[in-house]
Design brief:
The structure holds 2 protein chains of 2 kinds. By secondary structure, chain A is of the alpha/beta class. Chain A contains 10 helices and 12 strands. In chain A, 41% of the residues lie in helices and 17% in strands. The chains are: A alpha/beta, B mainly beta. At the A-B interface, strand 4, helix 3 and helix 4 of A face strand 3 and strand 5 of B. Chain B: It holds the Pfam family ThiS.
Amino acid sequence: MHDSLSSGDPVSFYGTELGSRLLIGTAQYPSPAILAEAVRASGAEIVTVSLRRESGRERAGQDFWRLIRELGVKVLPNTAGCHSVKEAVATAEMAREVFATPWIKLEVIGDADTLHPDVFALVEAARTLVAAGFQVFPYTTDDLSVADRLVEAGCEVLMPWGAPIGTGRGLMNPYALRSLRARHPDIPLVVDAGIGLPSHAAAAMELGYDAVLLNTAVAKAGDPARMAGAFRHAVEAGRLAFLADPIDARDMAAPSTPVLGTAFRD
Amino acid sequence: MKIIVNGEAREVAGPDLAAALDELGYGDVVVATAINEAFVPVTARPAHRLADGDVVEVLAPMQGG
């Protein structure tokens, strides 16, 4: 099923077609080997990466970069930890050079406790980066007006949160996510952050979202590779369900077995 | 001259960013650089003169979500 789904139903980000609708983060795994195993089990074709200070002596980043290149996946660098437009733009420019991609997962954090995006700075940074030739994947809230502004700024993908980063609470506001989907039917939408269980990922796909991005739910699971496989199946199941046009929920029971010809009834 | 590299005070001969990176052990390492919060591309490093008190960031690929 996976093969036919992959080949027949690609998702496109800025003109790049991908078979997998699961994007996976590379942080917090127990070891590099387990990270590699989880990425393979997830079937993901895009992984998120970051930039951090490198010591001229220890060079920790070089081994990590070699591992990612060996996995043969596309990288989506982030601007995690940036709290201002200036920091985010400079980090994006550094990421473009190091990772040799115009893709950037744009995060501008407004509150350190909740990691709530600063949506005003996000829109401003997105505008600056689009003008500089970046292909921006903004990590945003489920706010409709902010989504409109990001699209006006030139974003061709939006990544609203399901819940705050690392909380694993699933889709806090399915109504808002459904509204966003209806408002922007032609923009690829990715639920990014807050996913804790495969059922959350399936629910996002059933709403018609194009993809799901997660990290902690796999990296911090007792068996990351097995959980990565579970998410792979959940994302595919949710996508198939969406394509199959689900029934509407109703309040009263409706018999599924035909009533006509029931014994003992005239 | 005295500069700040990744938050630590360092003494380098300079005079430019490329030379300072060599001196600090980054010669063959894949890194991106910024000075005083502004990106400096690889190609601009040899021409970028350092000044006392410059704040230099040297970043490399790292795990991210």
